[in-house]
């Protein structure tokens, strides 16, 4: 009897290991990608605060388009993961996903090419907008290889080979840093590209990686060589049915964040520059949450098929892993905000008001990381049940209906300025966490997952 209980306890700890092993390569690969971007943007920051402020406008706009299109293909990993084993259907799934990626990249690229016109319509600083034009042009070209790579990496993620993404980032990081070092400040006799050098370097590296990964993909996976060029419309519909709500949710979230950045632009270059600094640090931390959230969705999807562990145990394991890394981050952001700012911009000569604003943004960013991290975990837990519509609606309504209006009221109506803007923006994230928690608890109760987990915990006691 005691041996049986010990085996049950051992099994109950399995979700921690499963989540950690799956999330680690995803998070590390994204961390490497973001680390490269972080260093490159530091190069941009050394070119002046106007380049840094322009980067805040450009990157928030680009990330909206990229996320709206690329996150649709997160459905590929979930669909493959729900299959008992890879089959000929997998090759058809990938070929149709690549077709959809090309179709979606076309309007996405056009929107980037004309993005500077939108910024001018929103009354952003003309000089800053001028610095974004070439950045948007190269980003538009880079959208095609970026989406194709997303599809391929989702195939590897769905087949349990998440380490492939890590290998690609390990190859891409030194290339990105080298090319950006040549282009952004203009070393080795090359012209100084500034902010545009960021997207040009990314385009070059993405093309190199795409050629390499396509070669190995077709060489090592015979099933994928059997794909047909004929478009399977029902299969495309299936991909979009699961992936489009994900894309709309993520893209809609980034769009509302971009709008908040545009509102910040009304407070001047210093506010945009301070926001860009804190956002870059927060983005590095968010990649840990990104990997954990993706792993949670995939693990829940698989657990429903294999029933190797209660879903509630998997969710609890994810929350514990989240707490393990977010607490040290809060301490670092609260205690070392000025040091982090000086390290990023490479100088301590900015006016005191800039550092005071940056410190406030770091404290608020710590709060954002906690609330937004919980929101993403809850969203992906629901997505693991193949429910992407309800969390999508909750998130979009909370951000567009609560965050954006309240941030505008707090900043302009109540004269809270940049800090009021950030505080008001946090409100919708809190509302989303409350609604998603209720939604997930109802789903767990209906599936009787929570009851079985509580009963097992009582047995162990």
TrEMBL record:
InterPro entries: MATE_fam, MATE_MdtK
Keywords: Membrane, Transmembrane, Transmembrane helix, Transport
Keyword Membrane among record annotations: yes
This protein's record includes keyword Transport: yes
Name assigned to this protein: MATE efflux family protein
GO cellular component, one term: plasma membrane
Annotated TM spans: 20-45, 57-81, 93-115, 135-157, 164-184, 196-218, 239-268, 280-301, 313-334, 354-374, 394-413, 419-441
GO molecular function: antiporter activity; xenobiotic transmembrane transporter activity
Superkingdom per UniProt: Bacteria
Protein source organism: Legionella erythra
């Amino acid at each position: 009897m005691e041996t049986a209980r010990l085996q049950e306890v051992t099994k109950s700890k399995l979700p921690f290991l499963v989540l950690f092993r799956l999330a680690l390569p995803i998070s590390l690969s994204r961390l490497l990608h973001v680390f490269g971007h972080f260093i490159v943007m530091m190069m941009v920051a050394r070119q002046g605060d106007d380049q840094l402020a322009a980067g805040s406008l450009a990157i928030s706009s680009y990330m909206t388009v990229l996320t709206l299109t690329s996150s649709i293909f997160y459905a590929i990993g979930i669909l493959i993961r729900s299959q008992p084993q890879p089959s000929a259907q997998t090759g058809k799934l990938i070929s149709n996903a690549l077709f959809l990626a090309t179709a979606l990249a076309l309007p996405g690229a056009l929107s980037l090419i004309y993005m500077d016109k939108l910024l001018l319509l929103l009354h952003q600083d003309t000089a800053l907008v001028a610095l974004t034009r070439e950045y948007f042009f190269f980003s538009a070209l880079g959208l095609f290889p970026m989406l194709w790579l997303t599809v391929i990496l989702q195939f590897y993620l769905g087949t349990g080979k998440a380490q492939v993404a890590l290998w690609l980032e390990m190859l891409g990081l030194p290339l990105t840093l080298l090319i950006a070092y040549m282009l952004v400040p203009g070393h080795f006799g090359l012209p100084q590209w500034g902010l545009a050098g960021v997207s040009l370097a990314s385009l070059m590296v993405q093309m190199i990686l795409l050629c390499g990964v396509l070669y190995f993909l077709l060489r090592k996976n015979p099933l994928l060589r059997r794909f047909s060029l004929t478009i399977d419309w029902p299969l495309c519909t299936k991909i979009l049915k699961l992936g489009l709500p994900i894309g709309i949710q993520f893209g809609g979230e980034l769009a509302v964040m971009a709008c908040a950045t545009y509102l910040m632009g009304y407070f001047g270059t210093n506010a945009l520059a301070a926001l860009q600094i804190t956002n870059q640090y927060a983005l590095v931390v968010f990649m840990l949450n990104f990997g954990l959230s993706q792993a949670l969705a995939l693990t829940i999807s698989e657990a429903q098929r294999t029933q190797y562990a209660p879903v509630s145990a998997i969710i609890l394991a994810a929350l514990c892993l989240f707490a393990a890394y977010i607490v040290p981050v809060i301490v670092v952001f609260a205690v070392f905000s000025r040091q982090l700012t000086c390290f990023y911009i490479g100088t301590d000569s900015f006016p005191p008001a800039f550092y005071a604003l940056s410190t406030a943004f770091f404290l608020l960013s710590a709060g954002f990381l906690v609330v937004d991290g919980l929101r993403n975990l809850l969203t992906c837990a629901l997505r693991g049940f193949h429910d992407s519509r309800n969390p999508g609606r909750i998130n979009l309504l909370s951000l567009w209906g609560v965050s954006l209006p309240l941030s505008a009221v707090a900043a302009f109506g109540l004269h809270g300025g940049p800090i009021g803007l950030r505080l008001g923006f946090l409100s919708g994230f809190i509302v989303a966490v409350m609604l998603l928690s209720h939604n997930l608890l109802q789903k767990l109760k209906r599936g009787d997952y929570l009851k079985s987990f509580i009963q097992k915990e009582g047995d162990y006691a």
